[in-house]
């Protein structure tokens, strides 16, 4: 049975005091080394910690191409090494006046990718038979492949020029993907 003195200071099971374990010299050195390692890790720039992320990919939201986009990026040695932003119409979503919030969203994501991952390149991937182009322009460009190529090239070049105007140090690649996953560069 506890003494009256013990009961007077007993605050119940929720108030146990925790005492740190006593460290001998070897334990202290281990703890200090671990702390130094954590501090060094925290000081590294983002890409050194999370893998190299040099690229921001802008693509359309079309579900038919998500797997093909991942295959394309993996084929370039970029699997799990790129940031990805998705806007309906890809380049069109970033430049159209019809949806100005999409424009802001693209630029904000680009700024965050620069700050966090220090990207050096933007890859803009439009695709054929794009519904966003139909919605924004009111024309089914897929019915005329030459006109479709022209409108995508014009929009891709417009966005590439805008990116270079704001961030001259960034490399910009523009491309057009077919529904079968083949990709053609757009200069």
Tell me what you see in this structure.
- With 187 residues, the protein is α/β, with parallel strands linked by helices.
- The protein folds into two domains: 8-43, no CATH class; 47-185, Carbonic anhydrase (Beta-carbonic Anhydrase, Chain A), CATH 3.40.1050.10.
- It has eight helices and five strands.
- The protein has helices at 4-8, 25-43, 46-50, 66-75, 91-95, 100-117, 131-137, 145-166; strands at residues 55-59, 82-86, 121-127, 171-177, 183-185.
- Strands 2-1-3-4-5 form a five-stranded mixed beta sheet.
- α4 (66-75) links the parallel β1 and β2 (82-86).
- It is globular and about 75 Å long.
- 25% of the residues are buried.
- The model is unreliable at 2-21 and 31-50 (pLDDT under 50).
In the residues, how many domains can be counted? 2
What is the CATH third-level topology name of the largest domain?
Beta-carbonic Anhydrase, Chain A
SS element count, helices: 8
* Structural class computed from helices and strand pairing: alpha/beta
Average pLDDT taken over every residue: 82
Strands, count: 5
Low-confidence parts, pLDDT < 50 over ≥5 residues?
A: 2-21, 31-50
């Amino acid at each position: 049975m506890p003494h009256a003195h013990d009961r007077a200071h007993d605050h119940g099971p929720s108030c146990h005091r925790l005492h740190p374990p006593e460290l001998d010299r070897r334990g202290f050195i281990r703890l200090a080394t671990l702390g130094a390692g954590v501090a060094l890790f925290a000081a590294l720039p983002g890409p050194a910690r999370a893998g190299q992320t040099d690229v921001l990919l802008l693509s359309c939201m079309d579900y038919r191409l998500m797997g093909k986009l991942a295959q394309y990026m993996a084929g370039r040695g970029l699997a799990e090494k790129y940031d990805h932003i998705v806007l309906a119409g890809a380049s069109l979503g970033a430049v159209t006046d019809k949806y100005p919030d999409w424009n802001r969203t693209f630029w904000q994501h680009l700024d965050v990718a620069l700050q966090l991952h220090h990207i050096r390149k933007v890859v803009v991937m439009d695709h054929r038979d794009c519904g966003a182009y139909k919605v924004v322009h009111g024309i089914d460009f897929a019915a005329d492949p030459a006109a479709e190529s022209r409108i995508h090239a014009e929009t891709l070049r417009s966005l590439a020029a805008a990116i270079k105007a704001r961030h001259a140090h960034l490399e910009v690649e523009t491309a057009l993907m077919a529904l079968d996953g083949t990709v053609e560069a757009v200069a």
